[in-house]
Design brief:
685 residues, alpha+beta, eight-stranded antiparallel β-sheet, globular
């Protein structure tokens, strides 16, 4: 390989890795916890677990529960996912093919049914911290585009893996055996990055590739849709035959008898593991009972099967033998199984978890290599300061995630069941606001060693507390969980003890590698640079007046945005004159906590920044203002786009949202100028 080509691949690998590093760390760290999300939910609930009893589902009783709850099921397709450690049957209902079916207000088309008591509960009735972390794994909290962001990050990660292999190819074997802990810091991080990158390479490649497939599948379907001449129904039937629908026929009064079909299937295919069942065209003469599952991994790797029964006659309508390979189905099932690691039991999940943490270390070490390589006197001071800021932000985001997850576990366990309706809002506030505050605190400490030390120290102590909190609140001490065979609960407690022990081991070896460089010293060098390059920006009376005018402008823009949110809500009330009812569906007269939080976060925060801008001169406040203004700008841009797409006729709302977005752009621009001039003048004094 020529030197020029090598440099191209090297810089491509570096840039692609640095750009996605913080986001990629979040994906892998949350992905590690997502592997045990069902066990986390069982641990939070603290309920006794009997998976064998849970798997023995009485589907006829589950249907009776739905009808008792007032659901008109005629003509609907009912999809039921079998229980996991949560011991709940997840039910999804399709719209009825009969247009005369009336839906009751407030009835959800997805919910849980407890497989021990057969009581219905809402999907968000008990929101688990495991569910929050799992959804953060693919950025579900960002509406619509979150999963595509995760997919694009996975794509760039795949790119970084390929270019990394090309760059290190000649020395990939020899460097694997080299570790020099006593030489300069950049060499230590490089050796660790190379060695651990090699160990986790197959795992990382699999995850990058499968993530692209799962998160960007809509893009994959575009050329496939062209091949099918736009016939999406035919395309989906071929790709996902389990979703096939049937034309609705007349009603039948014959009693429902479907439990027997499970036993018949088990007798037909010994070792077959049902994963989900469908009841197609419920209550119709051509009602069908469909069982989807897989062969035991010991008998056949990735063997998927399906059998469809005619409920009226009990005859087999169609089948797909799990011990016979189907290319299309095997590809998708293989991709999903490789990504979630659900084909090797808990030992494979444990291996996946360890490799995910190894990948997190590879990401962090890559950032540190980049920082050390650019911490040279030959590099201009403004570039060095920028690189340090990037490093502080990345390390703060990544490492503060660990203690925040541990703290959120404690809060999730401590919340009484009376708070279940507000559980999601509380966990969101604790997790995301806590993460934001921790990130800002560590960012402005400007010391990666301090960030690492206290992130690990807090996480280790909180990890030790978690099993104690579980025992005090639910009585599920380690020995009690073991004696009751409540292994999912036991696994979480042991997991946190193991994480704490490992973290304490790392802390014991953690030492400050170099002398701490004072931030003010670097700022002084930057001022010297600016004096030479931009003498007009240095502190003088006219510039002071400019800064004061700038602060007034910023305060006005904050106030404009706050008033804009209020007007936007008034316009929402204005539209009720053209509807029959002004009450929201499911309203009880009590404003939900999350609605208060939205008002406080949007209107209240904007007014608060308006006031503080006139009073606070500190550099940290200017940076915080920029950070929050950018977040609001992204939210406002998203809001404008969704309003145009879904409420194109609401001109007044689109107008005010557009004005707020323009004000937001001007605000960010002014804040950046204010930060630059304020920093120079403060240091030069």
């Amino acid at each position: 390989m020529s030197k020029r080509l090598y440099n191209v691949f090297f810089h491509t690998h570096t840039i692609s890795g640095i750009v996605i590093s913080a986001v990629l760390f979040v994906l892998f760290f949350c992905g590690a916890f997502a592997l045990i999300k069902d066990e986390i939910t069982a641990w939070e609930k603290g309920e006794p677990i009997d998976l064998e009893q849970a798997y023995d589902v009485d589907y006829e009783r589950a249907i009776a529960t739905m009808e008792k709850e007032g659901y008109d099921l005629y003509g609907r397709d009912i999809r039921m996912l079998l229980p996991d450690a949560k011991q709940q049957l997840y039910v999804l209902l399709s719209p009825s093919q009969d247009s005369t079916v009336v839906y009751k207000p407030g009835q959800k088309s997805y919910f849980f049914i407890n497989t021990l008591t057969y009581e219905k509960s809402e999907y968000y009735g008990f929101y688990s911290i495991g569910e929050l972390i799992y959804r953060l794994h693919f950025f579900s909290q960002i509406p619509t585009i979150g999963i595509y962001i995760a997919g694009l990050v996975a794509f760039f990660f795949l790119f970084a893996i390929v270019t990394g292999v090309i760059v290190h190819w000649k020395k990939i074997i020899s460097n694997f055996y080299v570790f020099r802990p006593k030489v300069k810091l950049k060499t230590v991080w490089t050796d660790a990055h190379t060695a651990l990158g090699m160990i986790g390479l197959p795992f990382q490649f699999i995850f990058a590739l499968t993530s692209c497939f799962l998160c960007l599948s809509a893009l994959v379907l575009i050329p496939a849709n062209y091949l099918y001449s736009g016939d999406q129904a035919k395309l989906l039937t071929d790709l996902r035959p389990m979703t096939q629908t049937y034309q609705l026929e007349g009603k039948t009064d014959k009693p429902l008898q479907i439990n027997q079909f499970i036993d018949q299937t088990q007798a037909k295919w010994p070792g077959f593991e049902p994963l989900q069942v469908y009841i197609k065209n419920y209550g119709a003469e051509n009602m069908k009972f469909q069982i989807d599952g897989k062969a035991n991994s010991k008998d056949k790797f990735m063997g998927t099967g399906r059998i469809v029964y005619e409920v009226s006659s009990g005859a087999i309508f169609s089948e797909k033998n799990p011990f016979e390979t189907s290319y299309l189905e095997s590809v998708e099932h293989t991709v999903r199984s490789l990504h979630f690691g659900d084909f090797g039991g808990f030992p494979l999940k444990t291996l996946y978890f360890i490799l995910a943490l190894v990948t997190c270390f590879v990401i962090i070490s890559g950032v540190l290599i980049w920082l050390e390589a650019r911490n040279k006197k030959a590099i201009p001071i403004h570039q060095r300061l920028f690189n340090r800021k990037v490093g502080h932000i990345y390390i703060a985001i990544c490492l503060s995630l660990y203690p925040i997850i541990a703290f959120s576990f404690i809060v999730a366990k401590a919340l009484p069941r009376s708070f279940d309706p507000e559980r999601q809002s509380i966990l969101y506030a604790v997790f995301f606001i806590g993460w934001l505050l921790a990130t800002l605190y560590f960012r402005f400490k400007r010391d990666n060693y301090f960030t690492t030390l206290w992130s690990l120290r807090l996480a280790a102590y909180l990890g030790l507390i978690i099993p104690v909190v579980n025992g005090l609140i639910s009585g599920n001490w380690l020995w009690v969980s073991y004696s009751n065979n409540a292994f999912p609960i036991l696994i979480i407690d042991l997991f946190w003890l193991a994480m704490a022990a490992m973290t304490f081991g790392v802390l014991k070896k953690l030492k400050r590698p170099v002398e701490k460089v004072e931030h003010k010293q670097l700022l002084q060098e930057l001022v010297t640079f600016y004096r030479q390059e931009y003498p007009e920006l240095i502190h003088n009376n006219s510039n002071l007046k400019t800064i004061e005018n700038m602060k007034s402008k910023i305060a006005f823009l904050w106030l404009f945005i706050a008033i804009g949110y209020i007007i936007h809500h008034i316009y929402g009330l204005f539209s009720v004159y053209y509807y029959e009812s002004v009450m929201m569906e499911g309203a009880t007269g009590i404003v939900p906590v999350d609605h208060h939080l939205w008002r406080i976060g949007l209107e209240g925060a904007s007014m608060l920044f308006c006031l503080f801008t006139l009073e606070i001169k500190a550099a940290w406040f200017r940076v915080t203002s920029i950070f929050w203004a950018v977040i609001l700008g992204l939210f406002n841009a998203y809001h404008v786009v969704t309003a145009i797409l879904h409420e194109a006729s609401n001109f007044s709302e689109i107008l005010i949202l557009g004005l707020m977005l323009v004000a937001n752009i001007l605000l960010v621009k002014t804040l950046l100028t204010w930060k630059k001039e304020g920093m120079i003048n403060t240091v030069s004094e």
